[in-house]
């Protein structure tokens, strides 16, 4: 078996097994060369995402886009580099929280969203052109976009390099790609080990780290210009969401007593703004065409 990021042969045995109630036991492999980690027995790429969207993004779970600090920060970055004229696309835009924030600019705005209820909501609440479907089924203009947002999507895709290559084709000369994903070498992830909630999200198949993200981006002809760590909301990573806590208890990763604490006072405590900074288990990189 080869590493999907660096092609090196991976160790014959998985590093560990995780159990997802909806997908069963999943062996997790770790590449000894680039330290990328990935789940085996991955359904075919399109099926994985289609099944995910079919089962998890029902109408009742979709809520309207809301103002977000991260969207404001992104807006400032785009303004700084591209000013008033920018062609921006958010791939995996969900209900359009980023696009909502960019609403009063003169930017050309596009969103890609496979889940019909989310796409409908994004269309209702933002002025962006929303392309409903998977990227491979859409006909988007090549070398067109100054800024591509590709956040929290790549970990769901079976062949991340092929997917990223098709996205890079959309990038205009001098354009910027912002990619965000999970970081398995973040402090939180290392401390939690196999109890790290990101291993249990349905449809998460790739668990990146700084090194494997860098290799992947470079394999697609881009060079990283900026790196940040974060997660929104970050405390969720440290104190798993209630349903995630329940799941961890069910699979005996967390003693019930610990889970009770996480579910009660600690939740409020860990949500204080000043506790947010060091607990970042998502990596964000900005990249441009390497020349
Ligand atoms: Zn590798």
Model description:
By secondary structure, the protein is of the alpha/beta class. It contains eleven helices and eleven strands. It has helices spanning 45-56, 69-82, 97-101, 116-125, 160-168, 187-192, 210-219, 235-238, 242-250, 256-263, 265-270; strands spanning 16-20, 24-30, 37-39, 87-91, 108-113, 129-132, 145-151, 171-182, 206-207, 222-230, 282-289. A seven-stranded mixed beta sheet has the order 6-5-4-7-8-11-10, with helices on both faces. A four-stranded antiparallel beta sheet has the order 1-2-3-9, with no helix packed on it. Strand 5, helix 4 (116-125) and strand 6 (129-132) form a beta-alpha-beta unit. The longest helix has 14 residues, at 69-82. Residues 232-242 and 271-278 have low confidence and may be disordered. The structure holds zinc ion.
What's the gist of this structure?
This protein is of the alpha/beta class and 291 residues long. It has helices at 45-56, 69-82, 97-101, 116-125, 160-168, 187-192, 210-219, 235-238, 242-250, 256-263, 265-270, and strands at 16-20, 24-30, 37-39, 87-91, 108-113, 129-132, 145-151, 171-182, 206-207, 222-230, 282-289.
- Strand segment tally: 11
Task: State the shape.
Answer: globular
Pick out the low-confidence regions: 232-242, 271-278
Radius of gyration: 19 Å
Counting copies of identical and different chains, the oligomeric state is single chain
What percentage of residues falls in helices of 4 or more residues?
25-40%
**What is the structural class?**
alpha/beta
